[in-house]
Amino acid sequence: MRSPALDAFIAAIRTEESLQRRVSSVATLNELVALAQERGFALNPRQLQLWAHSPCFDAPWWPWAGEHGANKRVAFFRGT
Amino acid sequence: MIGTAPWRSYSFCSAVVPEPLVQAADRPALMPSEGVLGLHDLRRRYRSFAEFQPELPALLQQGSLLDDCIQVTRALGILEPFTEEHIPPEAIHIQGPNYRESLIASGLLSRNRAMLVVLEQILGSLEALQQQDVYLVEALTGFALWLRRHLDAERLICSEFLEDAEHSFSEIPHQDLCALTFSDASFDLVLCNELFEHVRDLDLAFREIARVLRPGGRLLATCPLAFGQQASIEKARHNPATGEAELILAEAEFHGDPVRPKLGSLVYRIPGWELLDQLQASGFADVAIHYIASWKHGVMGADLPGLLVIEAQR
Q: Which residues of B fall within a CB distance of 8 Å from A53?
């Protein structure tokens, strides 16, 4: 079952443009986790990795959006 | 339905079974042969086809004992691996002669119990299993439910391959064995049932599994095996340029799949023993195939009277 914190984080990003800009510039999974935690969402890297292929990560504000997005997305979550 | 029973005090003569869970009159009388007794809990480990091949004729011959073994199971029930819970005969469902798939108890199939027997042999106890970080490459099965019952949620990750899913599975995460999104060295155990025949690029999947395992971590797996030969039987291949599968054999073969109940899941190959070489080439140091035939634990097969479980250690 998906973590409620993940759903809440995704919902917050969807409605808040400033947060969309922040997530679009994160370079690593740890930075994304730190951003979530800074905003009060109790997430860890594993919870995000597990749902990496979820449609909620298809949105255009994610740092992997664009050409070769699928490969970039996998690399981002792996931390490679 | 599950109780404890003085298993080791059971006799094969139903008249002397103490306090039976089923009335003795309802049970078949048993006079198991020496051969059947030999399959009470047979365990072997083979590192190559060369080791296995000389024993294959004798193992196949034991197939004639399968029905007698089933009679014992029908009379005594089984002991679940790890938990040692006695599952009485009335709680066991046998839905056909392919006992690998049809001998069902507490939601587990024969091949699931075979994997648990091997895991117990390796780890020693349920407590030791509970200390492992486990990735189970399935989420919708009785085996997944069993592991969820016995492992802490923080220790167990389950996923399904949800591309072309015929239903919505919003509560189940999608993972692709050929492109896992976990960090390197994330798990102690990867458990993989009936997938290797369906994976589009098996070498890539093996490298991915090796990548996410910690040093010393293990992959345990079952899949249909061409156990009588070194070479795999190739049935289809993935074309990376088109993203489509191309058939090698004239007719596509599909296996049942809870995610795609109408279409099923395409079979790319039936792996042969060369699978062990592929695992070694993918980063595993110690590879073997276990053979388990155990009516005590409800592990019985079809073509072979036992089950084959792949083990690969990083």
A: 162, 173-176, 181
Chain B hits for A49, CB-CB cut-off 8 Å, are 181-183
SS3 assignment for chain B: CCECCCHHHCCCCHHHCCCCCCCHHHCCCCCCCHHHHHCCCEEEEECCHHHHHHHHHHHHHHHHHHHHHHHHHHHHCEECCCCCCEECHHHEEECCCCHHHHEEECCECHHHHHHHHHHHHHHCCHHHHCCCCEEECCCCCHHHHHHHHHCCHHHEEECECCCCCCCCCCCCCECCCCCCCCCCCCEEEEEEECCCCCCCCHHHHHHHHHHHEEEEEEEEEECCCCCCCCCCEECEEEECCCCEEEECCCCCCEECCCCCCCCCEECCEECCCHHHHHHHHCCCCEEEEEEEEECCCCECCCCCCCEEEEEEEC
pTM above 0.80, yes or no: yes
Q: Give the gap in angstroms from C-alpha A52 to the nearest C-alpha of chain B.
A: 7
State pLDDT tens for residues B246-297: 888 778 888 887 777 787 788 999 999 999 999 999 999 999 999 999 999 9
